[in-house]
User: Fold these one by one.
Assistant:
Number 1:
Amino acid sequence: MAEKLSSEQKEIIQEFIQECIDLLDHLEPTIIGFEEFTKQGPFLPTLESVPVMDEVFRLFHSVKGSAGFLNFSFMASTAHAAENLLDQIRKGQQPMTNEHVDLFCQTIDFMREVLGYVAANLNDRGMEEPARVLASQLQAEIGGGSSGGSVAGQAPAKAPAAVAEPVISVPDLAITPELVNAFLQEATEQLQEVEEGLLVWSKDSENKEVVAELFRKIHSFKGNCGFLGFRDLERLSHRMETVLDAMKSGIAPANAKPADALLNLCDVLKNSLADISQKGQGQIDGLDLYLELLADFIPGGQDNDSSVQTPRVGEILVDSGVITPETLFEALDIQKKPLGEVLVGMGAASLEQVDSALVEQEKFKGISGGEQAHPAASLKRPDIRVDLDKIDTLIDLIGEMVIAENMLIHSPDLAGLVLENFSKASQQMSKLVKELQEVAMTIRMIPVAGLFNRMTRLVHDLARKSGKKADLVLVGMETELDKTVIEKITDPLVHLIRNSMDHALENPEERLAAGKKETGIVRLAASHEEGEVWIRIDDDGRGLNREKILKKAKEKGLVQGDGSELSDKDVSALIFLPGFSTADKVTDVSGRGVGMDVVKQNLNQIDGKIDIDSKPGIGTKIVLRIPLTMAIIDGMLVRVGDVRYIIPILSIRESFRPAAKAITVSPEGQELVRVRDRLFPVLRLHRLHKITPASELLDEGILVLLENQGRNVCLFVDEILGQQQTVIKGLSEYIGKIGQVRCVSGCTILSDGEVCLILEVRGLTDIAEGAD
Amino acid sequence: MAEEKYREETEDDWADDNEDTQKDKYLTFHLAKEDYGIEIRFVTEIIGIQRITEVPDMPDFLKGVINLRGKVIPVMDVRSRFHMEAREYDERTCIIVVNINNTSIGLVVDKVQEVVDIPESQVEAAPEKARGKRSRFLQGMGKVNDEVKILLNVEQLLYEEELAQLEEIAPAA
């Protein structure tokens, strides 16, 4: 491949990388699942395990295929070797062992590495050495099974047919709906590209590069079709490939211009794909005719087997001598409109002629029967890729709409009016807006499942390396988080899991000695709590070493005295102090500090918080608390003096007007209120924010009991105004630069257009705690 | 409606604007007894005074935040920034919305006057004597006919403390 790649080629490579990464992400947990099989020693495939293996087999195969077309020979050869090995195992020619699983994991790692390399350099030439090592390892495992297996440095060689020709074994493979979907998506994209390429080519027939590219695309399309057993698609695309090959090598008949004919065939392929998406078999009516049509462009021709079924309008017109082939191709160039219309427009055929041709075509369709029940059904794609900016704009606009709607419905002009129709309409509107809001919020959200699955691999590797035994329990996989948030917490999660595995979990012997089960448990759970998403990483290991941490903290002067008055929680929190453990080691194994820095920093970037709680000998619990980014919360509107605030409803336990005798004042002046046998500190919002309240007397206002993580505070306000949907907006960055606002998490715009601050309950409880 | 239309028109004008047409143009406003000017390229719009929501724990000059068509922007009282005597807001009081480094901020001034051309040749450096605390905000003195406009450095006006801090750090490093 030439050093200089066109932008389209780069795009293909990028798509290839993306596709491969998706495949690898999807399959990594499956491969790890193999471990289950090999736990009891070498393993022979059983009825349940074969479909799983088939899935992995298909992965390797499709990676091999795609990599091969793009000339990433090292990647292809490795995939090929892995494929062969798995094939042998699958067929029961040799049992699967732990080593095999590791080898497959290594292959996956290697592929990721190559993909990274390819992304940077657009070729895989630098990967020769690792590829050779890995391939030879795989070859060694394959043993005598396949002498013809490829050696690194070559493009995938022809291996024994039984192994390398997956089409033959297709009936054995369970083709899942997901697989078909993935195929359809990819195939549609490929066809789209082919079509674009053909359009370029039809304008610039000297462009050999385009032809070569088209050839590759059609080839990979063919490969996919063949793999899934869509024979008709395969045959047709194979013929298209042959034509392109002939054009490429310049042996095609002179002045042949197959571009338009190929374009036409792309439509046929698309129809067939649409049929598959409707659960059809993708059969192509008139396949032979199409094959024949293309034979004209191939030197030497092909045997003709004409069983005409549904010829196209254009062909019929050509046949009946109304137009010449050239006119037809010309017309195809402007194929935006239905062909017939174009022909009429060009004056090449009269309206009547086209009509009669259409009637004739209908007849043919009638003959060919119900096979093509929905010929016009367009292929449905389950997803589209959208620019994140666009989504953000959409979400912003919807936020504005919520505010505007509030302003409209609560407009002061309407006060006191009885408007039956208006209130009906406005209710309807509110419902719609709310739904719209919910949908918009989900657009950016993706489940944490993908992220969690990756951790499975991490735990597996670390356990293998350290000789520990560990089970990773995943909970709340369906919990959704903003995409950028997921990206930000990936690294922290890796560090935390690594810590748990490296430091917290003990060796099997130690565990047994401590009366624990031999296999340690790391639990990764995601859930919605208090308007945040909590990600918990719990282990049942030895816990943090309080003494060591304290000693280090004292050395650094972070703790005065002997620190004995600090709770375990406080001590644990020390490890997150900046610079705490970077200089020295907290535990004897390795530095806990660097990783914790990353954790802290990344979480800060998304406004997240981290809590750690560790009990010696019992385990460590770490909670990452992540705010829902684009949040619309339910808020309670309260008033103090002439200032209004929003309190997140999720944090409110109750609100009440206190009786005078329920209030006690401590000697330090701290007011406490008794609520059913419990005393809570009172915080006067007007003092905190220096406002003149309606009344200073507690029994003339309202106390709102707030809770945050088991800590409570009673907030004193003048009155409660009501509940409302609140779109959270950040206070300007500028404000963050010139000062720190206490106890305010953001602001919102009220129905009268005024800005209103949102109280941060955590800050309030902290203050109350400090005042204790 | 009229306001809406006006805004559309001005926005159209903005699209045509380039650096050249904004050069040497200053928006002038009145504060206490003096006329001030800021470079027009920072100004996005001028709005009448509206209710300002106070933000606690802020320096005095930061009056609070306002809702500017769905965007929450902070508002600075220029009088109190210059430690001048506070004055009741009236119907002439305006908020000049400026945009610096993609941050919008409103500046409360006594009244907005006009846009004037002050070519570079007509701008004098701020007088040596005034290099006190206040002069940090000054870009120069602009002469228009026989009047003098005090030209403000908007960036300093907003970030004076921060910039000063940076300067302190720089020589030390």
Note: The longest strand of chain A covers residues 520-529.
Number 2:
Amino acid sequence: MALDFSIILRFQEALALGLWMTIKLTLICVVLGCSLGFLVGLARTSRRSLLRAISGVYVEFFRGTPVLIQLFWIFFCLPLILGVELSNLASGVIALTLYMGAITSETFRASLKSIGPEQLDACVALGLPRRVQVTNVILPQAVLRAVPTLLSNCVSLFKESALVSAVGMADLMFVGQNISNNTARPVEVLTVVAIIYFVIAFPLTRAVTLVERRVLAKLAI
Amino acid sequence: MGYSFDFQSIAFGPLLDGLAVTLQLTATANLIGVVLGFPLALLIMSRFAPIRLPAMLFVEFFRCTPAIVQIVWFFYCVPMLFNVFLGSMTMGILALGLNLMAFNAEAYRAAIQAVPREQLDAGIALGLNPLQRTLYIVLPTAVRASIPVLLTNGIGIFQQSALVAIVAVQDLMYQAKTLATETYRPIETFTIVALVYFAVSFPISQIVGFLERRRQLMMS
């Protein structure tokens, strides 16, 4: 069969809009998800067993079920339960933020664990209150150590964001599928969509290795 | 909220059929991924660029594009490009299997690189040829070291397998969608199905945690 990639040029604006939606969604959920993840990571290492139990159930549940079903659940069930209409974007943001929160909390938990107990002893010896311990001692170290894994979490989120196309959000994947259905040229359109995702995600995965080798080595932590 | 739950109207028959399809997809994809991931790892570690580069491109492509794009691509493009028409099940297995193969290859690569240099030297000293060294020294050590990651990837593909519902393979997710629309009971259906997925993957992730802890104990 004859491939004709010039067809993409006719739809570049639509694809650009889709890509913008994908990027916007990813960025919003990275910020919200990382913040949620840090808090949950703290809760999972908390001394209060109730806090530990709740956060544990949340994380295990979101890591133990497919993102697709989480998305469907939030799109179809949350409005019924809350009794309010949620916009597409809002549901997408909620679903992906909860997913991102769950995976980054594991990252933060691992990096929190890597902070030696002597640091906490030092905090106690210095008489620092809990809030200062968290913001000035634990947070900076935990975040720095978590950076490489967080970056790969972001790549995962970027990839998982393509799922929102299944619930009708006009992201890159959705636009691509629409174009390919309407033009009956799936090979060209879907290949280009895949390449766009690749072109964004691949440098990010390289950056992970770079950060691991250079930045962390320089900071000597 | 004025929603009354009704778990009675959920038909479990189709869900069980769906679970069987999902498990079959997962098992076959894992077989492909675990077996073929190892030779692929050897290819990406090859010294010859003409072998290494295509293998690396393959791995990176699967790791850096969304699984849903890969699956939709497979279902639409493979029949058109290669003029072959495979059953939807075969297609799903192929897409998931290749995806897992790429991820497992990375796991094997890390494990192979962790095989101590001395062991290979010992192999050379014993007069083993490269194939024997790979089969008898690298393979057993690397496979054992990568088991936790292989299991994690295996659960990952179990979860990703829900994506084939989008291309109408009648797996658990597909049955859930159908049932939710037929019965107008999305909350009950999706909750039950989510619990089913959870019930399968949670024990395995606990096993992974156990293996990792034991490994750390053995190392220390």
Note: The two ends of chain B are 54 Å apart (CA to CA).
Number 3:
Amino acid sequence: MARKNRPTAEIPNGSMADIAFLLLIFFLVTTTIANDKGIAMLLPPKPDPNQPPPEVTKNDRNIFKILANSQDRLLVEDEPLNDVFELREMVKSFILNFGSPGEEGVLIYNSLPASMKAFSSSVRRSDYSDDPTEAVVSFKADRGTSYELYVQVLDQVNAAYNDVYGERVGLSASEFLQLDRDDPIQDKKYQAARQGIPRAISIAEPNKIVK
Amino acid sequence: MAKFGKKSSTSQDIPTAALPDIIFMLLFFFMVTTVLRETDILVKQKLPKAAQLSKLERKSLVSYIYIGEPKQSSVFGKEPKIQVNDVFVEVDEIIQFVNQEKDKLNEAERDQITMSLKVDVESKMGIVSDVQQELREANARKILYSSVQSVDI
């Protein structure tokens, strides 16, 4: 009968995939995967105007001094350094020096794995730190220092600390960084690695230009 | 020889009926993960490379400060400038910005605010340390030098 000639009420869906593809490509192109990674730092609290700036009471050998000038040249422990990547080893041997460890220092030394003890005694110097609890890395940049160098130096110093932390629990520096502190087992490892050795990085204020 | 002439009886068509569904799944994935950028960045942003990076844990606690040479150097000059939200600010306006950002958070979380410094590699430390001094004043002490992962040696 006449019913048979009626056109079908279906929407053609053959090109559905093409339409979806178009949308897909649009979102693929517009997506920017946010990178929220970086070197974390904690700034010191603001100075109290009523109090004079604290005197440095630390022994000179417990401070590892890094200076950068406006020409991007480095002065490390009063000697010029050309290659910023050497800092990692230098800082590491500075932290693990155990020149004349205190009570806490001896405890930390005894808790270290054998490879780190061997490393410590092979590089021991009289002008490096007494023990890790005392060691401070001080970094002072000039106002004219490039931000690139600043980040590189911070990266190297952090790398040295992460090396130390990681090695204590048998991890590499990058594996140590990836420890997930929400997981109790990994958090325990993290605590064990950090125990007793503070990440003491001091960023000095650049010199003010006197007007 | 006759072996090769034999015609296989299996059909060689890949079934494409489920193709739109697969594509839709991909589409939804990208639609959900896409974050539309809220601010227009007006300064050059070539981030430095570093190896020892840590991830930000809570995005809601993060505010961004962009520093670099303005993209429109004919209008704004070549000196590095500080940008927050959509506008350039001077150094002494940063405390105000930090307080605004803190007001958006819960009272308990205000001290945990993290400032992500997105600084162009061409910038000098002078402007960065000025910003840091202001952040100390504003008591926003957790900062992050945003950088790109470089290959670890």
Note: The first strand of chain B starts at residue 49 and ends at 50.
Number 4:
Amino acid sequence: MTESALFTIFVVAYLFYIGKSLNPPYPREVLEFPWLGSFFLFSSSATVVVAEHRLKKGERGGFHLWWGITMALGAAFLIYTATEWYHLIYHDGLTLSTNLFGSTFYSLVGLHASHVLVGLVLLGIILVASLTGNIKDRHHEHIEMISWYWHFVDGIWAVVVTVVYIIGMQ
Amino acid sequence: MANPTSSLKEVGTELAPAPPGREHGTLTAWIQDLIFTVDHKKLGLMYVGMAWLFFIPAGILASLIRTQIAVPNNHVLGPEAFNQAITMHGTAMIFFFAMPMVFGLANYIVPLQIGARDMAFPRLNAFSFWTTFFGACFLFLSYIFGPGLYGMGAAPDASWFALAPLTSKAFSPGNNIDFWSLGLLISGVGSVTGAVNVMVTIFCYRCKGLTLYRMPLFTWMVLVTMFLVVMFLPPLSAAQIMLVLERFFGAKFFEAQAGGSAVLWQHFFWIFGHPEVYILVLPAFGVISEVVPVFSRKPIFGYPMMVAASVMIGFISAGVWAHHMFTIGMDSFSVTFFAFATLVISIPTGIKIFNWLATMFGGKIRMEIPMLFCIAFLFQFLIAGLTGVMLGVAPFDWQLNDSYFVIAHFHYVIVGGIVFAVFAGFYYWYPKAVGRMLDHRLGLWHFWIFTAGFHLTFDPQHFLGFLGMPRRIYTYQEGRGWEFLNMLSTIGAFLQGVGAIIFIINMIYAARKGKIAGDDPWDAWTLEWITSSPPPEYNFEQLPEVRSRRPLWDLKHPEDPDWRFE
Amino acid sequence: MDTEHADHAEGVELPTPTPWPMLSALGIMLIAGGFVTSFVVALVGILLGLIGGIGWFRELFPVPNHELVPYTEPAKRAAPIKVSPRRISHLALGAGGHRAYYPLRVHRYSSGITGGLAGGAAMAVLAMLYGLIFQHSIWYPINLLAAAGLPTMESANVAMLNEFHLSAFIIAVLSHGVLSILVGMLYTVLLPMLPARYEWFWGGIIIPLIWTAMLFPMFDIVNPALAAHVNWFWFIVCQISFGLVGGYVVFKSQKVETMQTWSLAARMGVHAMETEEDR
């Protein structure tokens, strides 16, 4: 709930400032729709469900596999974002301080990316703990919480995509 | 499992309760205990102690401000020092006195009232306290590390709501604004985690039989408060993150030259800022709702209405923020909407006031100190509400916005309302926390001097507002008719200081020499009075079971228990 | 987390005290401090935060650390709750001696409307009579009443006040009618609560006198023209006529039972749920 409120404010700021930048680059010129990144992130939401399912059935191997795939997809998303930013910064010269679009874009997407990063760390802790055999039945609740968090991060991405890449590019 | 209460009953009848022993230990052991503890009661007391700790510098700043404007053309503080003083006074009082006080009371009382052993996440609780505390320290470190003139420190000086263009690098070079935004960011983390903790505790750790509909009103109002914290503190944090990005990395959020909007900052700030008022005042309402019935010897009048009114206040408070911004030039629809919402919020507040009066009506009122503060609260909060409604009328606000009338209004809310309720709560719960009663005679002195000082300070400020004195001016010329009222106000401020000192003396005196309280000194009805004073680390030997809204009444009056009427 | 506070024979399990949360918080503060001083401070902060975080994690994983807190010695425990020697007597519905009681039978609201209209008519007749006798025009009081809503009437002279004005007439009739109905309905609510003896005295004379006293200071603001021209003796006579006539009509109307004595089910309209056994 807290995080939702936090994101809401950044989304509002983005919407408020759409089309108010006074100097280029403008979003239409530099942004591309993040097909690949979205694919990575949205599919990771599915794999985390599969992983949880395997855990409930007691298949540790399957759990490790799907949990690992989830992590890989999350990391792939981060790498995608990093290359996108690299391109924007060194190719298009868009930084946080270039214009309003830069400020709102980097803060919103960056906030989301930092949440993905936190999620990855949490997933990693669970994976390591599980591989070393420390995960017991009483921890299932926590694993469920972490997967909820991952779904939440996904949901936020859906909002971010809508705002930044669909509304913002018109 | 052995039944500890059975042995307890046998012994308890023979022995008078022993005086609460202080932990005998060295100073280092004590500090180590503070750092290590995860006990909700100790953390609650630490929150409260922190609140008083920061109350002192904030109060000193207040008296400096009042000294400066007591007479025209005064030069006790220069303009820079004056701006720093008003900023630090406002920030510290709101974030580092009132907020920790709310969290301290919630921490201490809520688990006891709902019959729990501790908070849901005890370690997170400690983390919340320490982030709040370090945030406060960080802000005050600006007096040392802020880059001011001649090697002196420089505190933030853009007022407690840090309006946008003023906080940009161009107008506020140096780091003092960063101390403000970073300090509040840190403590914001603590407040939000603390609020989540309290919410989870209330939802998951109520003892057997304690349905939401039987929950004490203080706990109810804390619950609504914590919802507000979780929902409305993040906008402030987000805005402060933007400010930090702007000041360190050159982002353009609030910079008009790049198309940014300074008004957006105001919106973000007040989306937080107005619910914040209710974050502070709802627990105060909760205290009043506990104290008034106990000292009127009647159950609270209209319990369901009280709960409904609190929830309503919570909802409506989300839609009133822009009444702080009537003068920035909004379109008439927005002005009408926010004026209307502001007037509407007085309805649930009015319901509460009537319910307290109805509780007192026909009751057998005991004029103990907590009740005195409650009665004063009722008068003062009514006036604060009325001036609030006046300011909610937009054309009236255009005339008086940013004048001393506004200062008088919100100090009536915060001092006359919240601080008085905090004092009531202190006199009420101090025996529970310490095991000894606060002194009645000193309490009377405290009450009367503080009340007189309060009215002497803030009543004239209403008139100063009408006479056109703007807020945040560090001095003024002679012959405007403001001299006498300002002088009165300053005298009042010092009187309040005397009252506060008497209170502190009372606390110290009572901790050593006060009358032994016993478990239940006020003949009260909620669960915190069922355990010993001070409560043991685990709160209850055996978790209680509840069948009505007044569990202790049921035990004291087995022939006529409350649950018969539910 | 449900295993956090388990009970044992000799004590209660509580979380072990730990310094890690404090260290994490300190780390966060130092990271922020890095912004305003130098990055070295931030590095120390990150380090402390990491140490705190890891320590905290190890505190919780794989099992949250607990310690057994023994029960305090019996002498320090809470004394058992004593049964209060006081007896409780409940308020009985409608019992005498209490200042507040529910009226069990009330007048219909409709009687308030008819009473208000009757009283208003009586008042109007008397007022017009006054106009005819002293100002030689029945329109005089009507125009004065309308002056509250008509700016032109406010500054009118006596001659103008004596003439017929359609707009003034409409305003006066409307406001007089609405106010009469409202006051009449107030009567239906108030009359059962007045002292039982001399009801005509309280309702007919005292209440009109009270509201005349309340109107007296208000007239200067609401209707300055009326305040300037009014004859207070006749005004009071008119008010009392309203009180007597309106009060009489209301008083003579039939009373109906309130729902106060009904059961909750009946009050909510679910009559079928109430059976003989319930009583």
Note: The CA atoms of residues 31 and 38 of chain C lie 10 Å apart.
